[in-house]
Structures are given as structure tokens and as C-alpha cells.
Amino acid sequence: MSEPLFDRVAIIGLGLIGGSLAAAMRARGLARTVVAGSRSERTLERGKLLGLIDDGSTDLAEAVKGADLVFLAVPVSSMADTMARMAPGLGNSVIITDGGSVKGKVIAAAKQSIPQHISRFVPGHPIAGKEKSGVDAADAGLYEKHRVILTPTSATDPAASARIRALWTAVGAEVLSMDPDEHDRVLAETSHLPHLLAFSLVDTLARQGDSLDIFRYAAGGFRDFTRIASSDPLMWHDIFRENRDSVLQAVDLFQAGLARFREAVEQGDSESLLAIMTRANSARAHFLALSARTSYTRALSLNDDKVSDKTAMSNSASAGHGRRVEFHLQPGGALNGSLRVPGDKSISHRSIMLGALADGVTEIEGFLEGEDALATLQAFRDMGVVIEGPSAGRVRVHGVGLHGLKAPNGTLYMGNSGTSMRLLMGLLSGQPFSTELTGDESLTRRPMERVAKPLREMGAEIATTGKGTPPVHIRGNRQLKGIHYDLPVASAQVKSAILLAGLYADGETSVTEPAPTRDHTERMLTGFGYPVIRDGATSKVVGGGKLSACNLEVPADISSAAFFLVGASIAPGSELLLRHVGINPTRTGIIDILKLMGADITLENQRDAGGEPVADIRVRSARLKGITIPEELVPLAIDEFPVLFVAAANAEGETILHGAEELRVKESDRIQVMADGLTTLGIENEVYADGIRIRGGQYGGGEVQAHGDHRIAMSFAIASLRATAPILIHDCANVATSFPGFAELASAAGLNLTVVQG
Ligand code: S3P
Q1: Pocket lining for ligand 1, CB < 6 angstroms
Q2: Residue 221 confidence (pLDDT) above 90
């Protein structure tokens, strides 16, 4: 029980919405007395009988007498009249709120009928309901985990808003604030339009000759789509009338979309049909992810009742669909064959970003359809860029030019992807509109000040949380000026963010790095015809140029190939050919380190793929020995350390790593999380602030935690090749961020992996 927030609460209109708030307040002890006003004696009697209210009156002025809170839960069309009837009974300090689903009309009604109370009127809209209505449907849990939108006006006293916010929070709801017009427009599109379509579709088909026959054969799709046509016709009649203008706009918008779809069907235009539907798929995943604050594929699965509880090796499971994905590994095996891992993550991100900022259409092949790159793709769609695909790694980006991005409608959601967030911070600092960036649980713990600080020096206005973490707010319309920046940490993300901001800055922007980091941004800018002056450790751009669309081929990701390089090295009897892998010298630290450990790796068929060097890599098993990893190789293998630790666990003697404190702020604290897992398996190790010491040896099996970190999950999967007992890895869904299809590919090569989701 909580402390009562209000002394006497009057609920006007005791249907589902009003009755449920009464029930919730009573269940939590939030009001000393709850009374109701209703036109119907019977409803008041039922309310008392059900224990929802202490008392009630059909005289509304009587009902609100002495109340310190009034909640109006009547149809929007009767708000003005209801307010006028209760007005004579309202006290001088009463706070009034409502649950109407159209705010413009309710605010107008309040101005007209209760003008002297307007500063204490807090318009609100709980987004919750049921198909049943009436007092008997009242439910104390109706608002739990649901959203309530408050739409205070300039006249609303913030103290009154705060009390209503506290009320909804206390009944378990999540409270948001919005401008009233914005509310009516957004609701027209996301709620009123779908209801209108559902009512209309059922009615249209029902009026066909043999409608009963049609419905007899109606499958799940029809049932799902039309479920909301069972909602209360009276209430919806009201909403369509009261929110007329916004509903009409939404219908027009939809009609235009429908016409485009019709045209594509008529013309048999596969490209357009696929473009529409893939866009819709990813937009839906995006929206589900945003509301669940989780990764895309996890969000998809939250809504996927087709996924069975225990799906061994199913497509969807290994792609990361599923709330909880576990990897179960049998020990032993060898890796053999020829395979191509998915596209490079860093290059995929940049291909979307630069393609969007270019003039003309950029065609991308080999794009990584993993969640991180999809987060970037979605962000640019949110900023008005037309992007076709991805479909089998092909993407067409219709560039809008350096100054063509549009303000997104809401927060940009970056999922698990640090690269998306940090690079976008640079790029968005130069836009004429403001933005907010957020991400999943892991990303919202990661440091963003390292990027914000130099961008502020350029004139950007950026806010992070007190801990320097997301959400990140970027103020638009700031004129940036070029700076020189000496990077305190070797970070390609910080370097890239500054260079991208430099495209929008006056004069020269240059960055000097303490050690070489991946240079994909510099190479790709050059490929798009934007000059980058490179002089030793310094890269420089001059603002105000332009990018021209080009065709890009994304090489296979050496960071994904790394799992197979280590796996084939440690598992006796292995020989793998990894095709078309990017071997940019700023990324090949993994090969250098493995070779120092004695690995048998050769590069074949070296060639250039659109400005990036690629090769086929042959790897055969070898006896590895422990080494002290040269510190200058650390930035060149920064993402590969989890799997390098597995190599170290299988090497003779000790491997020592220093100078790698960056690993502690990746998707997880990769030093500690790997150390914990290795200890579980029985591998001796010692953790340093900036690294680790690992003594190679024989190990057993056990249960380890991936902590939602894709590279930790895949690393321990590889460790099974030399384990002597099964390994169970928890929390593996995020493998889909960088390596969709890992389970299939690794199993085909010889790993004894079963994906289980529950
Ligand atoms: C990346 C740079 C690296 C790397 C990340 C991708 C990039 O991060 O770890 O996975 O695409 O620029 P830092 O620049 O923070 O080291």
C-alpha cells in the first residue's frame, strides 16, 4: 500500500476507463475516498457493489464537491457538457484530468466550460483498453505497463502535471508528455487509422454476396488484422468525429501508400513490391525494438508466437530471434570446407551513411544484414532517405545530398550499436534539426563523452546523461568550425565522428591518432569523391564539399572470420578457406597475432574491392604457443580479443595482454566476462586493469554467460572444439547484431552447436 496521493477523488463516467482507475487507486491505497458521478443510477450501484467507489451521484456538481482530484472518463463528445454540469461543485484547488483520446477537442471544451480551473486541468490519455466496456469490465491492472500521454498546455501549472504524473506512475503506467496537436496527429495515424481500416475491411467484405462463406474460410491473417473491429462502435464513432481533421489526413496518407502498392501489383513491379515490404518489415522490427528497448531480432520474436519453445538449429533461432537464446555445444570436432562470412560491419554502417549523404543512387552489395547495420539503415530511413532492401545483401540508397536529411519524427534507436551512435553524433551535429539518440541496455551504459567533447569544440551542442552515457541530445542549427584534434584514445569511431562533422564545418578538420585505427571512413569518403588528406597519423577534410554516389562491394568481415581463424587453428584436422575477406591493414591484427602464436594462415588471391583490399584466407590447424601481445597490435585487433583469449587458452604457455583497457567499455566488459567464462571452463587466468594473462591448458566444459555480447557468445562456442565436456552459453541472441547465420555456418563447417531458445 502506498501513501494516499489524494484525499477525495471523483471519477466522472464509471465505465472501463474510469472504473479501472478507481479500482487501481483503491487497490494501491492512493485515495482516501473514491466517489463517482454518472448519468446512470445502475452504474453507480454496480460500482459500489464491485467495491470500486464509496459513493456516487447522478448530480455531477454534487459528485465533485470536496474532491481534490477529478478524473473525467466520458466520451470526448460529451466533455464540454459534462464539465459545464460539474463546474458549480468544483473547489478552488481541485486538479482535473481526463482520459479522452482526442486532446484538441477536450482542451477546447475545458477552456469553454471550466475556464477558472484551466491552470489545474491536465489533459491526459491512457493508452489502454479492452474489447469489453462498462463498469463490469473495470480492472485494477488495466494501466500496468501501459503508456499514458499527458498533453499539458502553456496554461497548465507544472505542479498539477507532476501530481497527475505521480498518480499514473503509482498505478504502474509509463508516463510521456506530448504537445496536444502532435498527440492527435500521432494517434490518428497509429490508432485511429488502423481501427478505421479494420472496421472498413470487415464491413466491405461482409457486404459482398457470400460473406458468410468468405468468413468461414478466413485464415489467421484476417482474424489478426480485424481483431480491433470488435471494439466499441460508439466510442470509435466519437473518435472519428472528434479527431476529424487528423483522421482525414491519416486516411489520405494511407490512400497514397495504397495507390503506390496497387500500382506495383498492377505493373508486376517486384523491385517496388519488395522495397515496400522489406521497409515495412524493418520498420516494424524497429518500432517493436524501440518500445521494448531491446535488439531488433529479439523484438521481432516478442511478437512471434510461431517460434516453438525448443527450436534446435532453426533458422530463426540462430538468427537471434528469441527472448533467450542459448548455445549448446558438444565438445570436439574440426572445421573444414570453404565459406564466406557475412559483410563487414564497419563498412556496412559507413556505406549507408555516405550513400545517404551522396548525390545519386548508391548500390551496395554484400551488406551485412545484422542488427547493428540495420539500426543505421533505419535511422536514415527515419531521416527521410529512401533505401531499398536489404535483400540478399543488396541495398540501394537514394542519396539526398549533404544537406538533404530531414528531422526524424522521434528518437533514433541504435539498438546495440556503438558505431551507429558515435558516427551519427558527428554527422548529426551538422544538421539543421535537433535529434535524440538512444539504444538498448548495453549501449545506454557505454561512454559517449569521448565523441561529444571534440564535437563541442567544433561548436556542436550535445548533452549526455550525468554519467556521459546515452540518451544523447544533439541540438540542430549550430554552425560548426573545423578543429585539429589529437585523439586521447585510439578510436576509429571518435575519429570518424569528427571527420563526418568536418564535412559540415567551416574550414579544415583534422584528427591525429595515437595508433593506427581502421580507416574505412577515410577510404570510403575518397571513394565517394570527397577528398581526404592523409599525412602519417593525421587525416584531414575540408568542409563544404560533396559526395557522389558510387557502387560498393562490402567484403566479408574479418572480425567474423576471426572465429573461424581461431577455431580451425586450435581444432586438430581442420582446414578452412575463408573467401573474400577484407584484409585492410588496419584490421589484420588478428592474423599477425595468430601468426606470432604459430598459426598456419596464408592469404590467397589478394585483390581490391572498391578501395578495400580483400583475399581468400586459408587456415590449417597448428600448435599454438603463448606470447606477449605487442601493444601496437591492440587497436588493429580490438574486436578480436575475446576469440584470441580462446586461442590463448589453447596455446602452450602463457599469453599476456596489456594496453587493452578499451575492452572494458565494449558491448560488455570483455576482459572480465571472458575471464569469468575461462575460469568456469578451468583455464587459469589473471585479470589486469588493462589486459589479462592466460595460461593455456586442457579444459572441461560448463555454463558460461555471454552477457548479451555477440563476440563473447561466439568465442565460447569456438572454445568447445577443444573442450572435454559440453558447454552451455547463455544470452546469445545478440549474435545477430554482427553475425546472422553464425550457427548454420559454423555447424556446416563442423562445430557441434545447437541453438535453443526458451
Ligand atoms: C568500429 C571501431 C571500433 C570497433 C567497433 C567498430 C568502427 O571501436 O571496436 O566494433 O566501425 O569504427 P572504437 O573506435 O571505439 O575502438
Answers
A1: 346, 419, 491-493, 496, 517-518, 638-639, 662
A2: no
